[in-house]
Design goal:
Elements lengths: L5 H7 L6 E4 L3 E5 L7 E7 L14 H18 L6 E3 L15 E5 L7
Antiparallel strand pairs: 1-2, 2-3, 3-5, 4-5
Bound molecules: guanosine-5'-monophosphate and zinc ion.
């Protein structure tokens, strides 16, 4: 746990969030400022700064994030289409420096 990290505080239960589901490796919460009708954040419970900081030891975590996206789409959202976005670095939009994947669905998205 990183004491300065908002997602670590959510994972620890110190800050409230709308939790969709979770398992040993990842937690899924509703984004506080949704950009689509369905906008979840898939967050590993281990504090990792960004994609660039992942190591071979984290292979299971990255796989768990994708498996969680499959679970959300298939079991919770009726197989609807979805988009995953992961920002790495401030200049491309990362604002919380605890690895996370945006799960977006429920509207037409054609542009990048
Ligand atoms: P980033 O910009 O780092 O890719 O994504 C961070 C996301 O976290 C943003 O979409 C922002 O709305 C969301 N966010 C920031 N603080 C909180 C919070 O306290 N609770 C929740 N649920 N989402 C947050
Ligand atoms: Zn953290």
């Amino acid at each position: 746990m990183n004491n300065d990290c908002i997602f670590c505080k959510i994972i620890a239960g110190d800050i409230p969030a709308e939790i969709i589901t979770q398992n040993n490796d990842v937690i899924v919460i509703k984004d506080i400022a949704p950009k689509a009708p369905t906008h979840y954040l898939i967050i590993p419970k281990k504090h990792i700064k960004d994609i660039a900081s992942l190591t071979a030891d984290d292979d299971k975590i990255a796989a768990s994030m994708i498996a969680m996206a499959q679970h959300i789409a298939g079991d919770l959202n009726d197989g609807q289409d979805f988009r995953l976005i992961m920002n790495n670095g401030k200049s491309v939009g990362q604002s919380v420096f605890h690895l996370h994947c945006h799960y977006l669905a429920g509207k037409k998205m054609t542009d990048l």
